[in-house]
Design a protein that fits this description.
Layout (H helix, E strand, L loop, with lengths): L17 H7 L1 H4 L2 H23 L14 H21 L2 H9 L10 H29 L6 H41 L2
Helix pairs in contact: 1-6, 3-7, 4-6, 4-7, 5-6, 6-7
């Protein structure tokens, strides 16, 4: 009795929605130390901003939100360059292995892969928000009370700070990936 046994291969569908990818790894997306440093810098900015209103020692330079259009486009471009450089470090087989990898920290298939690409999505999303805000500020004039303008500038500056710190974090991770891959090649 010869039975045809065909292995059924289940197809893997990798998530492509960037917001779902970020949601899947939300607990590992930003480290506590990253958030603490960012919050510390935001508090320092807010404190200096408040002191500038009450003292002549500190002056807050007047700026428009539209001034951030060029830095936002540069941030998006740099994020793209980093993701391209990162994908060149890993072969297709290594990317498949990263997707399939499971251990105590990565219990679901694909988690390590999503955790690897989510910071790029996060950083590009921040710079996209900065670019859209700058573009709107360049096109439209909003007649809010002065205090609202000042609060918006502080919030916007905090988002730009998050973008800059996220780019630095991506660069650090990329350098780490290069080091690990170089070590693998040397130790083969």
């Amino acid at each position: 009795m010869n039975e045809d046994k065909t292995e059924s291969k289940t197809e893997v569908e990798i998530e492509i929605n960037p917001f779902i990818i970020m949601y899947k790894v939300r607990k590992d997306l930003l480290s506590k130390s990253f958030l603490c440093v960012w919050m510390g810098l935001v508090v320092a900015m807010a404190t200096l901003y408040t002191l500038s209103a009450k003292s002549d020692i500190i002056t807050v330079d007047s700026f428009s939100l539209s001034d951030f259009l060029t830095p936002a486009i540069t941030g998006l471009s740099f994020t793209l360059a980093l993701i391209v450089a990162t994908t060149r470090i890993f072969s297709k087989d290594q990317l498949v292995d990263i997707y399939k990898y499971k251990d105590n920290d990565n219990t679901d298939e694909g988690y390590l892969f999503y955790r690897t690409i989510a910071p790029y999505i996060w950083t590009s999303t921040i710079w996209l928000i900065v670019a859209i805000g700058a573009l709107f500020a360049k096109i439209y004039i909003f007649d809010f009370p002065q205090i609202i303008h000042e609060v918006l500038k502080l919030i916007y500056s905090s988002i730009v700070l998050m973008g800059v710190m996220s780019l630095w974090s991506l660069l650090s991770v990329h350098i780490g990936d290069i080091i690990v891959e170089t070590e693998r090649e040397i130790n083969k």
